[in-house]
């Protein structure tokens, strides 16, 4: 099954993708995670991406599209995928259409997780991400048993560089200006499933599976 998750920063794309991969047997492809790994490695691409991420802006389309194309060369994507955080611009969406059509494939569902902006700042300033496995805890909504330590792998929890309030506001503006128009783009194909993301993680998860018929 080929799925895109769309939603503003903090909507729960990563949280839900991690709850879907086992049941669907497909990989999560998060461009944000891929850029954070490149930043950690200190690669030239990571250095370039960090300039944009720290401002809450989008990494240029040619860089992102190149990274995604390379990821699609790995065999695990043959079974399907959950794209988390890609595409984010019309140009990326068109590049994905072309990539899938060249592979003789197509999208099945575009799941839009809807959460109003006033919920999102608290979700992001309270998020604690694991350096080891990437799991996202939340100080209030999903607290770790031991402060600063991931329940899943005992890795260290940290606050992402872009989870500061000023950067969060910039990321939200970027989402509304550049990414939310994609909902209309995909609506024409009848594959958009809108989910109320303000509910608990479990309720959102159930609603997503229901909307994609699983
Ligand atoms: P990216 O990593 O994709 O960040 P984002 O889109 O801003 O989204 P987040 O990861 O912050 O939020 P999420 O929706 O995954 O929420 P989560 O599940 O963690 O991108 C980062 C940057 O990389 C971009 O700004 C850009 O610079 C660059 N980039 C990436 N992709 C790009 C692209 N395609 N083009 C150009 N640039 C790109 O949940 C958040 C918190 O809330 C967690 O703590 C979680 O525990 C909690 N939570 C989740 N669900 C619930 C719930 N239902 N109730 C209560 N709490 C909840
Ligand atoms: Mg995420």
Describe this structure in words.
This protein has 214 residues and is α/β, with parallel strands linked by helices. It has a domain at 2-26 and 79-116 and 168-211: Rossmann fold (3-Layer(aba) Sandwich), CATH 3.40.50.300. Helices cover 46% and strands 15% of the residues. It has helices at residues 13-24, 31-41, 44-53, 61-71, 90-102, 117-125, 165-179, 181-187, 201-211; strands at 2-6, 28-30, 81-84, 109-114, 127-130, 136-138, 157-158, 192-196. Strands 2-3-1-4-8 form a 5-stranded parallel sheet. Strands 6-5-7 form a 3-stranded antiparallel sheet. Helix 1 packs across helix 9 (201-211) and helix 2 crosses helix 3 (44-53). The protein binds BIS(adenosine)-5'-pentaphosphate and magnesium ion.
In DSSP terms (H or I, runs of 4 or more residues), the helix count works out at 9
SSE ordering? EHEHHHEHEHEEEHHEH
What is the spatial order of strands in the main beta sheet?
2-3-1-4-8
* Beta-strand content: 5-15%
The rough form would be described as globular
């Amino acid at each position: 099954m080929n799925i895109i998750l769309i939603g503003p920063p903090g909507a729960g794309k990563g949280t839900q993708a991690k709850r879907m991969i086992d049941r669907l047997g497909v990989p999560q492809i998060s461009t944000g995670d891929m850029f954070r790994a490149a930043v950690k490695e200190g690669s030239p691409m990571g250095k370039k991406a960090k300039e944009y991420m720290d401002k809450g802006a989008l990494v240029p389309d040619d860089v992102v599209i190149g990274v995604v194309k390379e990821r699609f060369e790995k065999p695990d994507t043959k079974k399907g995928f959950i794209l988390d955080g890609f595409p984010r611009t019309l140009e990326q969406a068109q590049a994905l259409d072309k990539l899938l059509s060249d592979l003789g494939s197509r999208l099945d569902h575009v799941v839009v997780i809807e959460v109003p902006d006033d919920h999102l700042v608290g979700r992001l300033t309270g998020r604690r991400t694991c350096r080891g496995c990437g799991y996202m805890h939340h100080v209030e909504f999903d607290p770790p048993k031991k402060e600063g330590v991931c329940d899943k792998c005992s890795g260290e929890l940290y606050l992402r560089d872009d989870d500061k309030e000023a950067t969060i506001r910039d990321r939200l503006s970027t989402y509304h200006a550049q990414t939310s128009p994609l909902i209309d783009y995909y609506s024409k194909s009848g594959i958009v499933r809108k989910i109320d993301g303000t509910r608990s993680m479990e309720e959102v998860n159930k609603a997503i599976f229901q909307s994609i018929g699983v």
